[in-house]
């Protein structure tokens, strides 16, 4: 299983603070999703072309099964991750963003400020996550079963096969 994790942050990419969200994605994927996987990693500024090129390369050329982005899903002019992601999707999966926002809402009333989306490109599942490190676990927790089911479908495996994805 090959997973791309992309941190989208002007400040982290400029070295103004250490990216903690990217490593948090890796921790959660390994522990919570229990996926044995190889990670491709990158930190880019909030730039549509940089985000889109990275996602497209990982999905089309590098054989990623799953791409998780973090950051840039908000409402400021520099928050462009959904705009960069959506045109790449062959099938959008709006339920992923809806689930993240609804699940987070009771504890984080500002969760609905995230415009995160998700979808399929080829055999790759692409999901936007909010940028805050604390948001990673909150959001991936509610998406866990849907991610595993989607990965099984995309890899042509019997989605009801309980064997862990290799
Ligand atoms: N990748 C990250 N690593 C560490 N802290 C982060 C990260 N992303 C966000 N944060 C924290 O959450 C706060 C709010 O995140 P915010 O959405 O403003 O950042 P961002 O838009 O993702 O990054 P930037 O503003 O640099 O483009 C940040 O001020 C920072 O403290
Ligand atoms: N679970 C969770 N969702 C969250 C948050 C959070 O802290 N936890 N932050 C909210 C806030 S304050 C914003 S501005 C939006 C967008 O954040 P981003 O621009 O870093 O993607 O995510 C929202 N969703």
Any descriptors?
6 strands, binds adenosine-5'-triphosphate, single chain, EC 2.7.7.75, Molybdopterin adenylyltransferase, Molybdenum Cofactor Biosythetic Enzyme, Chain A, binds ligand MTE, transferase, 166 residues, alpha/beta, 19% strand, MoCF_biosynth_CS, 6-stranded mixed β-sheet, globular
Give a description of the structure.
- The protein has 166 residues and is α/β, with parallel strands linked by helices.
- The chain has a single domain (2-154), classed as Molybdenum Cofactor Biosythetic Enzyme, Chain A (3-Layer(aba) Sandwich).
- It has 6 helices and 6 strands; from the N terminus they run E-H-H-E-H-E-H-E-H-E-E-H.
- It has a 6-stranded mixed sheet, sandwiched between helices.
- A hairpin with a 2-residue loop joins strand 5 and strand 6.
- Helix 2 packs across helix 6 (133-154).
- The termini are close together.
- The structure holds adenosine-5'-triphosphate and ligand MTE.
- Residues 7, 9-12, 17, 19-21, 46, 70-72, 74, 78, 131-133 line the site of adenosine-5'-triphosphate (ATP).
- The ligand Nc1nc2c(c(=O)[nH]1)N[C@H]1C(S)=C(S)[C@@H](COP(=O)(O)O)O[C@H]1N2 binds next to helix 6.
- InterPro entries: MoaB/Mog-like_dom_sf, MoaB/Mog_dom, MoCF_biosynth_CS, MPT_Adenylyltrnsfr/MoaC-Rel.
- Its EC number is 2.7.7.75.
- Pathway: Cofactor biosynthesis; molybdopterin biosynthesis.
- This is Molybdopterin adenylyltransferase.
- Keywords: Molybdenum cofactor biosynthesis, Nucleotidyltransferase, Transferase.
């Amino acid at each position: 299983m090959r997973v791309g994790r992309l941190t989208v942050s002007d400040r982290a990419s400029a070295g103004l603070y250490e990216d903690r969200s990217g490593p948090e994605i890796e921790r959660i994927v390994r522990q919570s999703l229990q996926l044995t996987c190889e990670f491709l990693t990158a930190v880019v500024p909030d730039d549509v072309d940089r985000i889109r090129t990275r996602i497209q390369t990982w999905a089309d050329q590098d054989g990623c099964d799953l791409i998780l982005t973090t950051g840039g899903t908000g409402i400021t002019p520099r928050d462009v991750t959904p705009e960069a992601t959506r045109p790449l999707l062959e099938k959008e999966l709006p339920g992923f963003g809806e689930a993240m926002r609804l699940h987070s809402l009771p504890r984080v009333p500002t969760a609905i400020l995230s415009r995160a989306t998700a979808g399929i490109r080829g055999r790759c599942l692409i999901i936007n996550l909010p940028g805050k490190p604390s948001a990673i676990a909150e959001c991936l927790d509610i998406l866990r079963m849907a991610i595993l089911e989607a990965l099984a479908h995309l890899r042509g495996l019997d989605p009801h096969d309980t064997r862990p994805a290799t």
